[in-house]
Predict the 3D structure of the following.
Amino acid sequence: MAKLFFLISGENKTLPLAELLAILEAEKYEFCITEKLDQVIRLKAEKKSINSVYLRSAYTRVCALELFTCEPTEEKIINNLNKINLTSVLNEQESFAVRIKRVRNYAKKSVVMDLEKKIGKKILQNTKKTRVNLSMPDKIFVGILTSGKLIFGLNIATICPKPFGERRPRKKPFFHPSAMPSKLARCMVNLAHAKRNDLVLDPFCGTGNTLIEATFIGCRTLGLDAQRKMLEGCKQNLEHFNITPEGLILSDARKHPIIKTNCVITDPPYGRCCSTMNSTTKKIVKMVLFSVMSLLKKGDRICIASPKSIHLSQVGKTVGYKHIESHFVYVHRSLTREIAVFEKQ
Ligand SMILES: C[S@@+](CC[C@H](N)C(=O)[O-])C[C@H]1O[C@@H](n2cnc3c(N)ncnc32)[C@H](O)[C@@H]1O
């Protein structure tokens, strides 16, 4: 197993780490966490696991092969650079760049620039016929300053969050205020352990964000919605991305016609901008959790969102699921979402 580290987003306290671990679990990689730092996770896993994280993650920013971790003093850093075998990662004639990133306020900007220069100089000294190229380097060394440490390594992948911004609800042909942000929808797909070719069911598909994000990681999708106008809008959004779902069905999620799925990822109505149709969110959630149970095998997962006041974890346990984890996402003063993950037992 290789020593890897991941820079994860700081936009939520628990979701980015949970998503990263869920991807490794879903793709069946063995891994062992060595250290959890502020926005950086150090772990041992197969190097190729980085590819899965790169292709799937919404909240990971950098995936790197660790070369050393130390106190961020010049002396310690230079000592470590002298100890490691740089020629194993940087060949003769190759160009490189050093990029140091700081998490929050763990270092001043001037420290970052100074470190980049000093580390670059040392790498030049310790390798043969290599050169610095800041615009198109063959290799990128990355260092993260966090929690009083520098975690330094070879950058394998940088994940750009821009595509999620480009797929945000307001940019889609059909918009509804109840739509879930694309990044959160992707994260839920990951938390549910959805895998390539799995059939993913969203029984409250709305504008289709979950279906779209699940398709982007290679899943087959099935959407239900009780409102024709939402289903028509969902179809329009899917077509915009050239997505053909396995089915889009006008159906009450509590009495659906589905017989099988690999996982369920959903965001039921909250009764605010989206009607609960003479019921309550809690009752709908309970009935749907109950109605999809028979579709799943032991160990299959459901990832579901609801207002925190519903106490999703309790509802799911009452229905008979194993509660795996819950995360809380602040939306505005009167709405914090609970994202709960359940497993069929
Ligand atoms: C919160 S929205 C889903 C948002 C969706 N995740 C998205 O990103 O667009 C809830 C959806 O559930 C639908 N709905 C409400 N009650 C339903 C029911 N009993 N069965 C199926 N769909 C229902 C609504 O029409 C709405 O589209």
The chain has a mean pLDDT of 95. The chain is about 30% helix and 30% strand.
